[in-house]
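Hello forum,

I keep getting stuck at the same step: I have a sequence, I want structure tokens, and every attempt I make locally crashes halfway through. Rather than fight my setup again tonight, could one of you with a working pipeline run this one for me? It's a single chain of 130 residues.
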Amino acid sequence: MVRATVLLLAVMPFMVLGAQTAADSNAIRQAALDYIEGYYEGDGARMERALHPELAKRIVRTNDQGRSQLQQMSAMSLVLAHERAAARTTGHGSRKDVTIFDIYQNAASAKIYASGWSTTCISRSGMGAG
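Reply #2:
Ran it on my machine without issues. Output:
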């Protein structure tokens, strides 16, 4: 089953804006990997490093009776939930591909393709020298 989640990731403090560099792409890719690998490993610190502190994660879940409900989590509640959870064996060490779709000024759009699900990420990265 593929689940889509929108995240706001903070990779590093805001810096001077500039053209995309290999370092920008690497920082975005690392933030995405910190998120998904933090999830699989139950590593809250790694996940926290990838998330903007004002993250508002929302997901629509449908129960067995077909009723849908909007669920919400803040960055800290997401981190704490994954710290309390044991490391996940399903998907750990499996496929974790990151595709960067677009980078514009200090924002980027990327997608993590992981075993069993995918996550759409919107990354704020502080690109450029600085």
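The chain has one domain: 6-124. If your local run keeps crashing, start a new thread with the error log.
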